[in-house]
Amino acid sequence: MASTLISRASRRFLKYSFPSSGLSIQYPSPSVFNPLISTEPSISINRNFYPSLGPFGQYHHQDSEFESFKTVRSLSNFQFVQHISTSPSSLKEGSEGNKNQSGNVVKANISWIDLYLPKQVQPYAQLARLDKPIGTWLLLWPCMWSITLAATPGQLPDFKMLALFGCGALLLRGAGCTINDLLDRDIDTKVERTKSRPVASGLLTPFQGLCFLGFQLTLGLGILLQLNNYSRVLGASSLLLVFSYPLMKRFTFWPQAYLGLTFNWGALLGWAAIRGSLDPTIVLPLYASGVFWTLVYDTIYAHQDKEDDLKVGVKSTALRFGDFTKEWITGFGIACLGGLALSGYNAEIGWPYYAFLAAASGQLGWQIWIVDLSSRADCNSKFNSNKWFGAIIFGGILAGKLVS
Fold first, then answer.
1. Fewer beta carbons below 10 Å: N end or C end of the chain?
2. Whole-angstrom Cα distance, residue 125 to residue 178?
3. Phi, psi of 205 (to 5 degrees)
């Protein structure tokens, strides 16, 4: 009796239609459903059309139509996975995403923060731009240049000091981003690249942002207190630049120059942390070269937002230079390299430094020459490449000091 009822229930449950292709099926047992793509229905396999299915639905017969179907489903899985990336360059705000089948741009907006950090922490990590380390590198390289220049000839730089400045660059860059987002929250909502930032989008309130800023500055103070008294005063004085920089684009077309003064303060502070004073003949050309370098990379970066900047009414060197941008940043690049050469000469650094400087000039010239200022993606790519310029200069200073 029981077996009869089970048999009838099974026959009723296994009803389905027989289209010519054998794929319009309501049979719910071995399902080929991708749960990551919610818009696609659950499609099952017709046992009568595919007689070689095993007891658990495994398919053995090499039917071309079904293989094509599986290939399409696999590609859809890959299409989803390719949008999940932990590479900072693929997550840079303003970068162009991939296009879907309808031609619409799909932006990759999933980073390691979304994958690995608790949800309560994610907005703060995004506020500090922890998933976009390029800013930390650009802030850190002038510090490392200066610390290495101040090292004793023939010896490696102070690794403890390099580590302290590395942590300080991470914290100060995060604090600067927090200040910027708090002051610009009304502007950020009107700019495509920035409207998803935590404060502008409402993920964090301004009060929460202020509390986080206090936390970052407290940690930064702990690092600053590890330095000598001269460096403490010099480091604390940079906070005026950090707090005022976000306001500059409201008043001048040269906010990138002001950013250069801010971001390259480490060229002064690194030397002072090692020597306890400043040598103007070495650190001032180094500092000036960093400012000119910033004018190059941040002008390229500003070209991503020039349309939005015009609508909102803020200023930048990208708008100031317009079609003559490449001529301007070429001049800044030459000034940057000249300052680096003068600083190395005054520091009596060894010959390998100049070989590295020649390589760095090639990298800088390459990005200026081929950057497409009308392409947000290319501007972003060239901007990110500046971490390699900083690394080449650091390698040159290190090699030059070891042989001097």
1. N
2. 10
3. -85, 160
- Please name every residue paired with 44 in a beta bridge, in sequence order, or none if there are none: 31
Distance CA 97, CA 122 (A): 22
Cα(74)–Cα(67) distance, integer angstroms: 10
- Supply 366's token pair: 């390459």
| Distance, CA of 184 to CA of 378 (rounded, Å) | 25
The answer to whether the CB of 325 falls within 8 A of the CB of 373 is yes
Please give the Cα distance from 68 to 237 (Å, whole number).
66
Residue length of the chain: 404
Structure tokens at 136: 């930390």
Among the listed residues 397, 111, 105, the one whose alpha carbon sits nearest the alpha carbon of residue 270: 397
| pLDDT of 308 | 87
Enumerate residue ranges in the chain where pLDDT < 70.
1-109
Q: Classify residue 169 as exposed, middle or buried by CB count within 10 Å of its CB (0-12, 13-18, 19+).
A: buried
- List Cβ neighbours of 278 (8 Å cut-off, separation of 6 or more): 268, 271, 272
- How far is it, in rounded angstroms, from Cα 139 to Cα 93? 19
- Two structure tokens written together for 17: 């239609």
Distance CA 246, CA 251 (A): 10
Q: 57 in helix, strand or coil? A: coil
Q: How far apart are the first and last CA of the chain?
A: 97
Nearest to 220 by CA among 185, 156, 269: 269
Chain centroid to CA 22: 48
H/E stretch holding 106 reads strand 105-106
Looking at residue 34, its pLDDT comes to 40
| Strand-strand pairing, 98-99 and 105-106 | antiparallel
Residues 300, 330: Cα–Cα separation, whole Å? 12
Angle, helices 134-149 vs 266-275, to 10°: value is 40
Give the 3-state secondary structure of residue 250.
helix
Structure-token match 């500055």, residue found: 217
**How is residue 280 written in tokens?**
């103007």
